[in-house]
Design brief:
Largest sheet: 7 strands, mixed
Mean pLDDT: 97
Strand order of the largest sheet: 3-2-1-4-5-6-7
Structural class: alpha/beta
Order of helices and strands: EHEHEHEHEHEEHEE
Strand content: 25-35%
Distance between the termini: 17 Å
Number of helices: 6
Bound molecules: 5-O-phosphono-beta-D-ribofuranosylamine
Oligomer: single chain
Shape: globular
């Protein structure tokens, strides 16, 4: 399955997916392109190093979310992909995208807790003892679509946003490739909000 990975930043999850594709012969997703909304995203260099086409679609070049979304979809169609994998992509895509592609996202909290860009900080501020990672299908709301996989991460008393996010990322780097592999292998069955994993 040809997929594009969408990023905004460092791209450590992108790297985990690229590594999985490289070492696992059963990883059925082929990452054919990376789309970034940020020209300085570290992940763009990771894509280039992996020999993958990297494109930038800047939010500031468009007048509205719909126009931006259309440009992202155009880039994705141009890459001839079947699905989008969001890996630290910090823009909300409009309905247009959800109607055209299955889209996966990874969020650094246990949905429905702490949606949005400050999930790690908000978990600490709230005082939860356990937070975690969620991988979900994207719908038109933020960090809201059908949940595919979740894993808990303990919050330690002396955690800062950085130390907690670092432990969360370790889980993400294992979990996201597993989910993308299952998705590309056709093992995720979706009925409304409920996602079932079929046996391999
Ligand atoms: C990850 O923690 C992901 O859950 C969130 O943004 C972060 C991206 O990190 N959506 P990276 O760019 O993959 O290192």
């Amino acid at each position: 399955m040809r997929v594009a990975v969408l990023i905004s930043g460092a791209g450590s999850n992108l790297q985990a997916l690229l590594d999985a594709e490289r070492v696992d012969p059963e990883f059925a997703a082929e990452i054919v392109g990376v789309i970034s909304d940020n020209a300085d995203a570290g992940g763009l260099e990771k894509a280039r190093q992996a020999g993958i086409e990297a494109r930038t679609v800047l939010w500031s070049d468009f007048d509205s979310r719909d126009e931006f979304t259309k440009a992202v979809c155009l880039a994705a169609h141009d890459l001839d992909v079947e699905a989008l994998v969001l890996a630290g992509f910090m823009r909300v895509l409009g309905r247009h995208a959800v109607e055209q592609f299955p889209i996966l996202n990874i969020h650094p909290a246990l949905c429905p807790a702490f949606p949005g860009a400050r999930a790690v900080e908000e978990a600490l501020e709230y005082g939860v003892k356990t937070t975690g990672v969620t991988v979900h299908f994207v719908d038109e709301f933020i960090d809201h679509g059908p949940i595919i996989a979740q894993e808990p991460v303990s919050v330690e008393p002396d955690d800062t946003p950085d130390t907690l996010h670092e432990r969360i990322r370790k889980v993400e780097h294992r979990l996201y490739p597993e989910v993308v592999k299952a998705f590309a292998n056709g093992r995720l069955e979706r009925t409304g909000r409920i996602v079932r994993w079929k046996r391999p």
